[in-house]
Design a protein that fits this description.
Layout: H1 4-25, H2 35-53, H3 58-76, H4 83-106
Length: 107
């Protein structure tokens, strides 16, 4: 299995490259508040999937993946939905994920 750091660095490099291509070509107008979407979205999804697949500290990776996805969603949807609502929903999801992982680990 690929170590977390190697995969995370690859995901981050691909994401930054895509940001440079998309914003540089003018497909999307640059909005500084959307930059966390490009960084934390793919990295959070990778971390969450790594936590589900990996046997090494699944709770740690699942929680940090969920936190990064929360930051990404709050940044992406800040003009449509109040970020506090997104963070509140994410806190509930993180608690549920934590219990699911703990129950899975116990047996």
């Amino acid at each position: 299995m690929i170590r977390y750091g190697v995969g995370a660095l690859a995901i981050l490099a691909i994401s930054i490259g895509m940001v440079m291509i998309i914003y540089g070509s003018g497909f999307i107008e640059l909005d500084i508040l959307n930059i966390p979407v490009w960084i934390f979205g793919p990295l959070g999804a990778y971390t969450l999937i790594y936590g589900i697949v990996s046997q090494r500290d699944p709770l740690y990776f699942i929680l940090w993946g969920a936190v990064m996805l929360t930051i990404s969603f709050a940044s992406a949807l800040h003009t449509i939905i109040n970020p506090i609502i997104i963070i509140g929903i994410s806190i509930i999801v993180i608690v549920i994920l934590s219990f699911m992982v703990l129950w899975r680990a116990r047996g």
